[in-house]
From TrEMBL:
InterPro entries: CbbY-like, HAD-like_sf, HAD-SF_hydro_IA, HAD_2, HAD_sf, PGP-like_dom2. GO terms for molecular function: phosphatase activity. Coiled coil: none annotated. It comes from Podospora fimiseda. It comes from the Eukaryota. This is HAD-like domain-containing protein. PANTHER family: CBBY-LIKE PROTEIN, XYLULOSE-1,5-BISPHOSPHATE (XUBP) PHOSPHATASE.
């Protein structure tokens, strides 16, 4: 086995506390689409109810699922228009209120100083949104050009749990899966990394206390090799994974 030399970070609720803000904006837009398409939802979506169902999926992925579930359709042009609008709505919210995940900035600063690992962001979200997020909290300096988006970077847009974005990021960085570790907070992200052959650290820090235990199981079942509750544990986890390699 090769030595681990690369860390691939999911963005939303792994580096930055963006999911609640993003889903708030998303819910407003989906409710508007439902009205325009005459879809009778059992009740309007809220940020919270959307998170429960779709955490880790991007907006395009959500719209595909919702069309299947509620039996409506939209043209590619319509979908692309809504995807762009959702990006604008969410970015505006992130620029207003976004903060980093607790403890992650210390970890990034230390990794940057030690220079032991190459660092990248690998997200389902649109590139514009990911860049706006890491710039807002001052994390962009750690990643250079290694910021990859399943919604934007790929020849064909997709969403995690498809492993395509991890495979793409490794190809661009010239890495093999055994050289990489990914940090993910969602089932779809964990499946994406695992399916790309990467060891995944399942991070449950941002989840509410009552959901945390359930999410630990969900992430383990999706293939996470270890669960991390706090960024303080990261260094110890990496030492352990290096030892196993």
């Amino acid at each position: 086995m090769g030595k681990i030399n690369t860390i691939l970070f999911d963005c939303d609720n792994t580096l930055v506390l963006s999911e609640d803000l993003a889903f708030e904006g998303c819910a407003d837009l989906i409710n508007e689409i439902s009205v325009s398409k005459n879809v009778s939802l059992p009740k309007p979506f809220t940020g919270e109810s959307l998170i429960v169902e779709f955490v880790g999926q991007n907006f395009r992925g959500m719209m595909v699922s919702l069309q299947e579930r509620y039996g409506f359709s939209m043209t590619d042009a319509e979908l692309n228009d809504y995807v762009k609008r959702e990006e604008d709505v969410v970015i505006a919210k992130l620029k207003q209120k976004l903060v980093p995940c607790p403890g992650v900035d210390d970890v990034l600063a230390k990794l940057d100083t030690d220079k032991q690992y190459e660092l990248a962001v690998v997200s389902s979200s649109a590139l514009r949104r990911v860049k706006a997020s890491i710039e807002k909290v001052g994390q962009d300096k750690y990643f250079g050009g290694d910021v990859y988006s399943a919604a934007t970077s790929l020849p064909t847009p997709t969403s995690k749990p498809d492993p395509a974005i991890y495979l793409w990021a490794m190809e661009k960085m010239g890495k093999k899966s055994e050289e990489c570790v990914a940090v993910e907070d969602s089932k779809s992200g964990t499946l994406s990394g695992t399916r790309a052959g990467i060891k995944v650290i399942g991070y449950v820090g941002p989840y509410k206390e009552e959901e945390r235990e359930k999410m630990e199981k969900v992430l383990k079942d999706a293939g996470a090799v270890v669960i991390m509750r706090d960024w303080k544990e990261f260094e110890g986890i990496m030492e352990k994974l290096q030892g196993e390699n």
